[in-house]
Amino acid sequence: MRQGLTRRGTAGGLLLLLASITLAAQASDRVLYVTVFERDTYAPVTGLGPTDVVIREDGAAREVLRVDPATSPMPIAVIVDNSAGASATIPDLRRALATFLRDLDGIGPIALITVADRPTVHQDYTTNQEALQAAAGRIFAGPQSGATLLDALIEVNRGLEKRESDRAAVVVVTTENVEYSTRHYRDVLEGLQASGAVMHAIVYTNGGRLGLDDAARNRASVLDLGPKESGGIRFDVLTSMSYEAKLQDIARILTSQQRVVYSRPQRLLPPETIEVAAAKPGLTASGAPARGQAGK
Question: What are the respective helix, strand and coil percentages of the chain, to the nearest 5?
Fold first, then answer.
């Protein structure tokens, strides 16, 4: 009897070993672009290792294999509100953009898009700092114009979807303004997901009473859910003089991204949720899958 038990145990052990080998062979490496920063100051933390980042898919922990500084070019679309309702903020906006663009020098091509009356490519994607600085200095409010932020996001994300890069970002600087686009918020968010870009937003909450029409609700939903669902951050500011400081925070987050490689067991369906967190208390992590991997 003892011999029979030994045989059965050996066979069971072999089956378990073979199953483990098969699963290991079927596991695939996945990539996230992540920034870890201090929760209160937004100061990025560098020099990270595999034990500093926690990744879960549908609640299940995944093994982090390696963490390295991100080096691939990142196209960034900067969408700014220059409608009539934002007229008083334009001088602060121009100064803040000048600093922001300098801080991003070398990260990849940057485009400036304005939203007065219709989405307008104020400066197409370029790495030329002189051209970007000149474009920022030429931003003025459109007289008697309304904001078309949601239309701009649709068009920007369609453009980013066609660009060959494994990471991308959209940065929105806007007031709480009347929205003239007729887009549904879910269409905008689906476009953001398809592009694989991370959305960051700075919203000047001027305390004005906005309408509760469909356009206002759709705009509010995009500004709320866009950063959350894409792995970005939203900052609310009480004065446009805060634009510069918050854009500097976003620049530090973008330029301090880490390329995190982790292992995912073979599965028939992609995970519904991917969560990234910092292992140490007092730190926060944000980020998103490498473009082309989301939803797979």
Answer: 40, 30, 35
The Cα–Cα gap between 132 and 187 comes to 30
CA distance to 217, 225, 250, per residue, from 147 (Å): 14, 19, 23
Question: Residue 57: which residues within 8 A CB-CB, separation 6 or more?
Answer: 264, 271, 273, 274, 275
Which of the residue ranges 46-55, 224-233, 262-271 would you say has the lowest mean pLDDT?
A: 262-271
pLDDT of amino acid 267: 78
- Name the residue among 170, 109, 180, 123 with its Cα closest to residue 150: 180
Three-class SS state of 231: coil
Helix (H, G, I), strand (E, B) or coil at 73: coil
Q: What DSSP element (H or E) covers 160?
A: helix 149-161
- What SS3 class is residue 107? coil
What is the DSSP track for 177-220? --B-----HHHHHHHHHHHT-EEEEEEE---PPPP-SHHHHHHH
Q: Which helix (H) or strand (E) holds 6?
A: helix 2-26
Looking at residue 5, what is its pLDDT?
A: 32
Q: What is the pLDDT of residue 296?
A: 52
Helix (H) or strand (E) holding 111: strand 110-114
pTM, two decimals, is 0.88
Distance CA 194, CA 90 (A): 31
Which H helix or E strand runs over 132?
helix 129-137
Residue position matching structure tokens 């953001």? 192
